[in-house]
Amino acid sequence: MSNNFFYMPTKIILGKDCFKNNKNIIKPLGNTALLVTGKNSSKLNGSLNDVINTLDNLNIKHYLFDDVEENPSLETVKNISLQGNLNNVDFIIGIGGGSPLDAAKAAAVLIKNKDATIEDLYNNPSLNHIPVIAVPTTAGTGSETTPYSIVTDHNLRTKRSICQRIFPTFSFLDASYLINTPKPIRINTGIDALSHLIEGYLSSNANILSDSLAEKGLEYFGDCINVLNNTDLTFNEAEKLLISSTIAGIVISQSGTSLPHGMGYALTYFKGVPHGMANGLLLKEYLKICKDDIKVNKILSYLNFKSLDDFGLFLNKLFLNKPYLNKEDIQNYSEAMANNKAKLKNHPWDIDIEDLIKIYESIL
Ligand code: NAP
Ligand code: FE
After folding, report:
1. With CB atoms counted within 10 Å of each terminal CB, which end of the chain scores lower, N or C?
2. What whole-number distance in Å separates Cα of residue 311 and Cα of residue 303?
3. Residue 290 Cα, ligand 2 centroid: separation in angstroms?
């Protein structure tokens, strides 16, 4: 990606009941939709019902795949596409956190290209996709405004982004689905959004447009950082969190992510650490090695922290159950990161394996 380039084609619709209230814009996408959700939450927070009622109202036929696991696998993507192809769906609606949204995006490629294989998701960037609509119910991944779809490949024992770029056609941001999110989920997803803002702001690919957005996103996040730990949120608090996460998605669409994300994947895959927490465990030490003091200080100031140590203490309190890493784990994960050229190129400064080891050791 070049840093004199900015592209974000997703139409974003915002506000309570925005799906129902703007239903006519989805009509041109077709007569049959596949809805993709996780296992339970969309049935409890009202998002699935809102989508179903609206589609019924529009006479759009719909089918449901409601079995996307966290960190969705290639097998799940394949199963979604089989259901989509069986029913000749015209477009796909991902409802939920980043997992169903990403799974819906990858399945959209396989539904459009009936002869494509799972390998094509990694090798054939020119493949097109059926339209994707996103209805996010976490303030975390920003998948509603990114072109990325991150899928777990159990053969390679890691998570990777597929090679097609899939921006949703429409993203509907209704914060009422996020009001009662359980605390651990809100914290993990919220810190994921925060690390997108931070990594995007400090990325080699950042430019004036992405920086302006990152600064606004950090300011919004700073306004609600203290409510992450509350039991329930007000609509306005939930909406601020959701908007900062969506802004973060726009930022990383331009900039990509760098060290915390690259290093966090091993913690998720091998230690079962939730994605946002994995980034959060690494953020303070990462900021310590970033050499742009002006930007690092601005980040702390937007988030209302007096020092990097204060920020570290805040993160420490959020994540009490840290994973145990032995020397061999740290060595292996650091070597893997040292070979992750895609993420390293987004980090503007030289880095060696000792730096990476130090960042992992800071978890202990
Ligand atoms: P998630 O894996 O989609 O969901 C985590 C948990 O939250 C699930 O148990 C889910 O329940 C629950 N949940 C979702 N919304 C809820 C709500 N409103 N109230 C209560 N519970 C709710 O979490 P995520 O952090 O949003 O997504 C993580 C995935 O996104 C990872 O695979 C990560 O790699 C990927 N990611 C993607 C991008 C991108 O740009 N595409 C960027 C960063 C990360 P149910 O299963 O019952 O729904
Ligand atoms: Fe992330």
Report:
1. C
2. 9
3. 19
What does pTM read for this prediction?
0.96
Q: So what's the pLDDT on residue 2?
A: 54
Q: C-alpha 164: how far from its chain's center?
A: 16
- Given a contact cutoff of 8 angstroms between Cβ atoms, the answer to whether 177 and 137 are in contact is yes
Q: What is the dihedral of CA 79, 80, 86, 92, to 10 degrees?
A: -170
Q: Give the integer Cα–Cα distance in Å for 104 and 84.
A: 10
- Which residue lies with its CA nearest to atom 40 of ligand 1? 143
Could you report the per-residue pLDDT of 256-297, keeping only the tens digit for each? 999 999 999 899 989 999 999 999 999 999 999 999 999 999
Nearest residue (CA) to ligand 1, atom 34: 150
Closest approach atom of ligand 1 to CA 71: 32
Strand-pair partners of 45:
none
The CA-based angle 347-343-305, given to 5 degrees, is 50
Q: What is the largest CA-CA distance in the chain?
A: 59
Contact 97, 141 (CB under 8 A): yes
Distance 28 CA to ligand 2 centre (A): 32
Q: How high is the pLDDT of residue 155?
A: 87
63: helix, strand or coil? strand
User: What pLDDT score does 160 carry?
Assistant: 85
List ligand 1's pocket residues with C-beta within 6 A: 38-42, 45, 70-71, 96-99, 102, 137-138, 140-143, 146, 148-150, 159, 177-178, 181-182, 185, 189, 192, 275-276
Q: Tally the residues of the chain.
A: 364
